[in-house]
Amino acid sequence: MTEGVLWAIFAGLMLGLYALPEKFTKGFKYENTWSLFFLLTMFVVPIIASVTLIQGFGEIFGNMPTDIWVKMGLTSFLWGIGVMMWSKAINHIGLSLGFSIFIGTIILVGSLLPFIEDGLPPSNVLTFILLGILVVLLGVILNGKAGLTREKDEAKIASEGTPAKGSMVTGIMIAVVGGLLATGFSYANAAGRPYLHEASVAQGNADWITAVAVMFPIFISGGIVMTAYFLWQLNAKNAWGEFKTPAFGKNLFLILIMAVFHYAASALFAYAAFKLGASGNTVGYAIFNTASVATAIVSGIVTKEWVSASPKARNLLYGGLGCMVVGIIIVAYANGLG
User: Fold this and answer.
1) What's the half-sphere exposure (Cβ side, CA atoms, 13 Å) at 288?
2) Per-residue pLDDT tens for 147-200?
3) If you write DSSP's letter for every residue of 64-106 in order, what string do you get?
């Protein structure tokens, strides 16, 4: 169990940091940065990783039952829409709060979805899992209040000549809806892992290769909607010319780091869920996402997203983070009971 928890936390750290390099790109519009990111993280990185690392790649996926393809494909497609919406939410409410609301929603819903495939755990385990998730919910609410308070603080500064960010309410709504759709990732992992693990091991692959195999259909399916959206956006915003910036090489390097971290974080979560056992999809998903929220909040503070916020707003943010950490400790304890 301990190994699974540690891998889930490490994966969450990587997910919490993956968007940070985006702050240092230059000469790119929003559409340029995220279209290149999604191209790399959804297609280039997973295809190279899968073909290179998975022994018997063609046979494993060629023999995968149609119903598993459909389950993973549809729910991953929804996940793709959700992640795309989350990237929009960051523009409105910043990195730390964007992660808090988006990932908090994912924790609340996505941690329960695997029960559809895996079945319910014993009543004592289920009770503590639900209690932990409720504590996480309190943390999400506090983080939402922190964001609204920060918006008021920034509005005061804006009236004195400093521009404020986009609408906080709009950003929170985008993050919540995106989070609900993004829970398709959790279900896709639960639906595909049993077959892919058995098929992968039968081809002589190590246990951890299953995580790479699970990510392949998830990322390819999720990437379809993102690619279509950003091709449309690049045309609509006349942004193709922005790729000619002198900073393209630096931007490509930074975005490649984002892509590798994002993909690796997801694959490590799948491995952590396997190591955590029967309730691993639920417990691992909760730990993984909460660790990413904590990392993103610290990153947001370090990059001065909350420099204009009042002590009240910051205290709400810290209180929300505290609740999320306590909730995850309860969820981890529940897994130990199982």
Assistant:
1) 30
2) 778 877 777 776 655 444 557 788 888 888 888 898 888 889 889 989 999 999
3) S-HHHHHHHHHHHHHHHHHHHHHHHHHHHH-HHHHHHHHHHHH
What is d(CA 180, CA 193) in angstroms, rounded to the nearest whole number? Answer: 21
Question: Going by C-beta distance under 8 Å and a sequence separation of 6 or more, which residues neighbour residue 115?
Answer: 121, 282
CA-based radius of gyration for the chain: 20
The reported pTM is 0.75
Give the Cα separation of 38 and 234 in Å (integer).
13
Which of 169-187 are b and which e, b meaning 16 or more Cβ less than 10 Å from the residue's Cβ?
eebbebbbbbbbbbbbbbb
Residues 6+ apart with CB under 8 A from 285: 106, 107, 110, 111, 114, 186, 269, 273
DSSP letter at 162? P
